[in-house]
Amino acid sequence: MEELIPLVNQLQDAFSSIGQNASLDLPQIAVVGGQSAGKSSVLENFVGKDFLPRGSGIVTRRPLVLQLINCPTEYAEFLHCKGKKFTDFDEVRLEIEAETDRVTGHNKGISPVPINLRVYSPNVLNLTLVDLPGMTKVPVGDQPADIEHQIREMLMQFVTKENCLLLAVSPANSDLANSDALKIAKEVDPQGLRTIGVITKLDLMDEGTDARDILENKLLPLRRGYIGVVNRSQKDIDGKKDITAALQAERKFFLSHPAYRHLADRMGTAYLQKVLNQQLTNHIRDTLPGLRSKLQSQLLSIEKEVEEYKNFRPDDPSRKTKALLQMVQQFAVDFEKRIEGSGDQVDTYELSGGAKINRIFHERFPFELVKLESDEKTLRKEISYAIKNIHGVRTGLFTPDMAFETIVKRQIAQIKEPCQKCVDMVIGELVNTVRQCTQKVLLVLLLILLLYQRGGRRGMVISPHSCISLLLSLSLHPPFCLCCRGN
């Protein structure tokens, strides 16, 4: 049973390395909560070290997969820094900040790409937690206006999975009914089967109030219950108060408080860590058969796909035709997505594709029309002269159609130049969209050249025709990268 959590850790690292971590439903515990709910303090208390970034606003801007491993020595390792051991946990904090900025930039943007951190220590139990960004409602600095929606979408990638347990962290000094963590937990786990409640800041409640009903699971009950903890205050953190002393103060608080004295043995950071270790171990044991079946199914599918290439014939016309048609179809799909605005990647820096064309028609074109000068007095005079000239010596009762057509044609001629300018701008954007959609084709051509050159260096006789056939076939199963595979 003790080997279950390390086994899942190995799977987690393996799938993170190939970018498939978010798509696999591994048993894990996701830590959710609002900003300043105390998530970071809870995790630091588990380790007994200050190692997480702190500050105002959104500090956790990428998911942090924290793997705690019981070990006689104390150090930390990052998956992206293989072989480097961090013994100074201040350096761990700086590395988390640097790796976050590398992907999200120096602004307050977020990214769903996780950071994998392993902490080896004799003070921890085997445990794996995913620390997610705190939920926010108001963008700060140069954050996008939809930052709340972005964070929610990221959280949903983790918490909607059936194999994910939720560690819902809520502060006791605010109304539990307004808890962001419990709100999202109730949405994805209405029966409360996967949610473990954590109540922080019990020492900051107003005098004469307590959270006894919550901790006794009478108010908003959860199947796995609630556990109360007392973290260090901001003053303690700024004063570098030792976490060991803080844990002793936490134990003393529960033993001396009249409302929590009878619950003292089931409260505190040490008890929470023990419970999470047991809950995750049992959860992995229960989900392991299904996970194994799913992995075996994926393995068989991949082996079947590999088997197709054993009898690969580069000069097979049907394969080349199929691959080429599929590439053309993919190009058409990419082009349509960019025009309709339903692409997988949304540009947050400038307008492009259909959005830019829409702006040309609804903003730029009307602006050009407004700039046209039209003198109503002159127009009335032209209309009068046109009617009289068409009537000639006669005195007409009705306005002739020819006069109307003559005036309208002259007016339409004036908007010819703005229309041509609008068409030119739309064509320019369409050309730019086509250029972006053809990047995949250019990548194939580049890999053809690379494969041809590598084959020449190794003394292999590979014709450009064979290279094209092979790459067209491989392009049927994206993503591919011959450089990484060493072929």
From TrEMBL:
Residues 23-289 form the Dynamin-type G domain. InterPro entries: Dynamin, Dynamin_GTPase, Dynamin_GTPase_CS, Dynamin_N, Dynamin_stalk, G_DYNAMIN_dom, P-loop_NTPase. GO terms for molecular function: GTP binding; GTPase activity; microtubule binding. It is found in: Cytoplasm. One of its GO terms (cellular component) is plasma membrane. It comes from the Eukaryota. This is Interferon-induced GTP-binding protein Mx.
